[in-house]
Amino acid sequence: MAAACYYPARIMISCSATTTTTSSSPSARPLRVAVVGGGPAGASAAEALASAGARTFLLERSPAGAKPCGGAIPLCMLDEFAIPRDLVDRRVTRMRVVSPSNLAADFSRALPPGAHIPMLRREVLDSFLRRRAAEAGAELVPGLVTSLSLPAGPADPYLVHYISSSSPEGAGRGVLEVDAIVGADGANSRVAREVGAGDYTTAIAFQERIRLPDAAMGYYDDLAEMYVGGDVSPDFYGWVFPKCDHVAVGTGTVAAKPEIKRLQSGIRARAGPKIAGGRVVKVEAHPIPEHPRPRRVVGRVALVGDAAGYVTRCSGEGIYFAAKSGRLCGQAMAEEWARTGAVTEAGLRRGYLRRWDDEFLLMFRFLDLLQRVFYGGNAGREALVEMCADEYVQRRTFESYLYKRMVPGEPWGDLRLLWRTVASMVRCGVIGREVERLRRLELQG
C-alpha cells in the first residue's frame, strides 16, 4: 500500500489568522485541543478526541517522513486499533536471537498456532492513522510548532505558534488558541521543553533499509533476527527485520552515540552473507527515550508516546505503547470536558496517568530489570540467548508481548527458570570472558 498523507482542503487553517474565543461558557462549545506530532501517539489521540466531538488540530511537521523503527507490533494491536491486514508487510513466525559468539536461539517453538508478529513500515502505518483521525473530524495542519504561550489562569487558553508548510508559495506563520495540548512530538519534544516537563536520557536508533536479491529476500520471508553483543551495541541489540521489498538493518545505543556508525558496521558484519549483494535505499537515524519523563502532565498539557518516554528497555518496543497512550489521553480529556466543562491537571493525572500506570508500569519495570541484568556485558548476553532457547521462557514472552498482558507464572516453572538463569550466568561468565579475549586477539592481529 502506498504511503500517502491525506489533507482535505476543507480543514486547512489560514496561516495568518488566530482562532478567536467566544463569550459562551466552556461547556457550551466543543473542547479545543492541539495535538502536536502525527505519529501513532498523536494520531490515536486526535482520533479519540475528534470522535468525542472535540475540535482537534493535529500538527505534523513532516507528513511524508517516518521515524526509523524496526516496525514490529504486537498481534493484539491489529484488532484493538483496527489496523487493516493489508498494511502488514510481513507476518513473522520465526524469531532468531544470536549471541556474541554467534550461537543462535530460535525463539519460535512456543508461538501459539496462527499467531505471528506483524511487520509494518512506519510511513504506511502513520499515514493510515492520520487519515483515520481526519475522517473522524480532526483538522490536519502540516507545520512546525515553534513555541507555546502559556495561560495566565486556569480558564485562559494556550496559544500554539507554528510555521505552516501547506502554502504552495512558502511557509507562513499561524497561531491556534486551544484549551489543552497533547505533546506527541517525539523524544526531542518541543512541547515538553516549553512546559518544563524535565529532561531524560535518550538513545539513538540508526537503520539502513537494504533491498536484497530475491533469493536473499526469500530467506527473510517470515524470519526476523536480533543480534546481541558489544560489537553491535553496548546496551541494546542490532536487528534485521523484513519489510515488503527490503530488510531493515539497524542498531541502537545510549552509551556510545558517537560510535553508532561503527556499531552499524558490526551488525552488517554479523549478518554477513545473508545480506550480501543488497543495495541501501534509505538511511535513517532518530533519538528514542530510555525512560519516562519526570513530568508527563503539566497543567492542561499531557505528553504521550516517545515524548512521555514510553519505549521499553530491553526490547525497545514503542509503537503499541505510543498508540495506547495517545488514545487513553484523548479519551481522558474528552471525558473530563463532557463531565465538568473543563480539562485540569488533576483530571489528566487521574484519567490518563493513573490508568496508564495501572496497566503498564509493572511491565516497564520488569523489562528495565531484564536490561540491567542481561545487557551489561557479553557474559550476560550469552546467558540471555541461552535462556531464550527455553520453551517456558518463550511461552511467557509471547503471552506478554503478543497480547500485552503480564501473565502470572507457574510456581515450579518460575523456580526452575530462576535456577537456570543463575546457572546460565555462571556458565556464560566463562564463555563471555573467552569471547572478549578472542576479540582482543583479533583486533591486535
Q: Can you put this structure into words, describing what you see?
A:
The protein has 445 residues and is an alpha/beta fold. The chain has helices at 40-51, 76-80, 122-136, 190-195, 214-219, 260-271, 305-308, 319-340, 345-374, 378-388, 391-403, 411-444; strands at residues 32-36, 55-60, 90-92, 94-98, 104-106, 117-119, 139-149, 158-164, 172-178, 180-183, 202-211, 223-229, 233-242, 247-253, 279-289, 297-298, 301-303. Among the domains are: 28-66 and 123-199 and 293-370, FAD/NAD(P)-binding domain (3-Layer(bba) Sandwich); 371-439, no CATH class. It is 38% helix and 23% strand. Strands 9-8-7-2-1-10-17-16 form an eight-stranded mixed sheet. Helix 1 packs parallel to helix 3 (122-136), helix 1 (40-51) runs parallel beside helix 8 (319-340) and helix 8 (319-340) packs antiparallel against helix 9 (345-374).
Task: Write down the CATH topology of the domain at 28-66 and 123-199 and 293-370.
Answer: FAD/NAD(P)-binding domain
Given as residue ranges, the uncertain stretches (5+ residues, pLDDT < 50) are: 1-24
In DSSP terms (H or I, runs of 4 or more residues), the helix count works out at 12
Into which percentage range does the β-strand content fall? 15-25%
Query: What is the name of the CATH architecture of the domain at 28-66 and 123-199 and 293-370?
Result: 3-Layer(bba) Sandwich
Shape: globular
